[in-house]
Write a structure and sequence with these properties.
The complex is a heterodimer.
Chain A (H helix, E strand, L loop, with lengths): L7 H20 L4 H18 L6 H15 L2 H9 L1 H5 L2 H24 L5 E9 L6 E10 L2 E13 L2 E9 L2 E2 H38 L3
Antiparallel strand pairs in A: 1-2, 2-3, 3-4, 4-5
Helix pairs in contact in A: 1-2, 2-3, 4-7, 6-7
Chain B lengths: L1 H17 L28 H5 L9 H5 L16 H29 L2 H25 L3 H16 L8 H4 L9 H7 L7 E4 L3 E4 H13 L2 H7 L5 H19 L1 H10 L3 H17 L13 H8 L1
Antiparallel strand pairs in B: 1-2
Helix pairs in contact in B: 1-11, 1-12, 1-13, 4-11, 5-6, 5-11, 8-9, 8-13
């Protein structure tokens, strides 16, 4: 199993690249900004999760902050719960938001730590013709040992800030897939059942991560 | 046969979506289980942020991404035979756990990569005639001529299909099946079905699978040459293709399974979305501005 990136010279390069890329992206305007936003996010995430100068707890805290800033978790949560969002009590909504955030942190963190030789490239940025606040960013993720993967991001710009709404791989939308999966669980087990299942998943993932020896 | 190629792409999609595999100790970041203990990990998303009313047009991002009059069925996948399908899904999973996955593990561990690639190239090359016909029927003349050129190059220079020589000359493998051809002419997938051994499908794609196997020329070729072991040979081809495909997706499917809370429902959604994407790939009525495509074509090569 590939090891997370630990080589110091790699960190230096990433930090330098991050420092160079972020101001450049702030300076320019236009649809390319949405691509620059994702570039910067990728760099910052790698930088944050590999920052050996801070404790593990701090790393998670920083990554959580970054994720909250970059993903529109409230909107995604509402879409994912669909009709059940309206049926849920305020307490259930709160619980769902809470656990859904953890589920997603667990899903996305390994993306930035697993492969040291992973190269993320934004290849295309398109703007929605009727809703100019929506962008469609195409990127490729390539590694030496694997075929290059194309990943598309749906991003919304609001108050000069970009937030990710959906991630699409090979024509499959993450938000839509989760909506269908969670909908099926709610149908069988109810909203509380869904929340319980997600909590259990977060717990077992965490156990697995802790118990596996290096 | 063709379902195997379908699975490859679905599997790739799956790994991208789940993207969780690293299980080193570094990933063990101790997620707080209770809200009360979450304070050290930074403030969480506040409920108020999500309570805002999305009735105004400018706020409803997902309404714009998946318009209700659009083609995406965002409420529920059409699965009237769910009970039977779930049973079949469990049956396939059992076979996978006890037979297919172990075979794939052995295959992946013991055979050199070059042999594994030859198996894939060989089975893909045998599918070329069926792919060619489907591309032709969908009016994809360029793809069809490339598929037939690939077939002749790989069958000769590529030593009977063991080597994908055409790929080195820029003629990449692409795939079309009869389910896609039906979809191309407007056929809806109909109810979702899980086929024994073949896995996720739909009424349309199941019919496609049957037509594709009728189109397959190899049984007739073996017949014409009076080969006695024709059934064993044809079965061997399916098994080799299946094991190779499974071996290439061991980690992907493991991750996917671990990441789901309803594996059946997730696979169903992934399958239906993916097939829809394959059929609509050439449609040009995207709501997104294409101007951004220009510079990208250079970097994408």
């Amino acid at each position: 199993m590939p090891q997370p990136c630990r080589r110091p010279e790699w960190f230096v390069l990433i930090v330098l690249a991050g420092l160079l890329a972020v101001p450049a992206s702030v300076a320019q305007a236009g649809p390319e900004d949405a691509g620059a936003f994702l570039d910067a996010l990728n760099k910052t995430a790698i930088e944050t999760l590999n920052d050996t100068a801070i404790s593990e707890d701090q790393r998670l805290q920083e990554f959580r902050k970054l994720a909250q800033k970059s993903f529109d978790v409230p909107r995604i949560s509402k879409f994912v719960l669909g009709i059940n969002w309206r049926r849920a009590t305020p307490a259930q909504r709160e619980e769902f938001l809470d656990v859904f955030e953890d589920v997603n942190l667990q899903r996305f963190m390994p993306l930035f730590t697993k492969y040291a030789d992973q190269v993320f490239t934004v290849t295309k940025v398109r703007q929605h013709k009727e809703k100019p606040r929506l962008y469609f960013v195409t990127s490729t993720i390539s590694r030496e040992e694997a075929p290059t993967a194309t990943v598309e991001w749906r991003v919304a710009k609001r108050d000069d800030e970009y937030r990710i709404l959906d991630v699409i791989a090979e024509g499959v939308s993450m938000a839509l897939t989760l909506r269908k999966e969670y909908g099926s669980v709610v149908k069988n087990l109810g909203i509380d059942g869904l929340i319980a299942q997600l909590r259990e998943k977060v717990k077992s993932e965490d156990r697995a991560a802790n118990s596996t020896p290096q | 046969m063709n379902s195997t190629h379908r699975l490859i792409v679905v599997a790739i999609a799956l790994v991208l979506l789940t993207a969780c595999a690293g299980r080193s100790s570094q990933d063990g970041l101790n997620f707080p289980q209770e809200r009360a203990t979450s304070a050290p990990f930074g403030p969480r998303i506040q409920l108020a942020q999500a309570q805002s009313d999305d009735s105004t047009d400018e706020d409803d991002d997902f309404g714009d991404l998946f318009p209700s009059d659009g083609e995406y069925d965002i409420e529920e996948d059409f699965d009237p035979f769910e009970t039977l399908n779930r049973f079949m899904f469990a049956f396939n999973e059992t076979l996978d756990v006890f037979i297919l996955r172990p075979a794939a593990e052995i295959y992946r561990f013991w055979l050199p990569q070059v042999v594994q690639d030859s198996v894939r190239n060989f089975t893909r090359n045998l599918n070329a005639p069926v792919i060619f016909l489907n591309e032709l029927w969908q009016g994809k003349d360029e793809e069809a001529s490339e598929t037939i050129a690939r077939f002749f190059i790989n069958s000769t220079i590529g030593l009977g299909g063991l080597i994908d020589a055409a790929d080195h000359w820029g003629m990449e493998y692409h795939h079309e099946d009869f389910g896609q051809t039906l979809g191309f002419y407007g056929a809806e997938p109909g109810p979702y079905i899980v086929l024994p051994l073949f896995g996720p499908s739909s009424v349309r794609d199941g019919i496609g699978l049957g037509v594709d196997s009728l189109l397959d020329p190899w049984p007739h070729v073996l017949d014409a040459f009076d080969v006695n072991e024709d059934e064993e040979i044809l079965l061997g081809r399916r098994i080799a293709g299946g094991v190779d495909l499974r071996a290439r997706n061991i980690d992907t499917l493991d991750d996917l399974k671990r990441d789901s809370i309803d594996f059946y429902a997730r696979i169903r959604s992934l399958y239906l979305q993916h097939r829809k994407g394959l059929i609509e790939d050439e449609k040009s009525d995207s709501p997104y501005d294409k101007s951004g495509d220009e510079p990208a074509s250079e970097t994408e090569q």
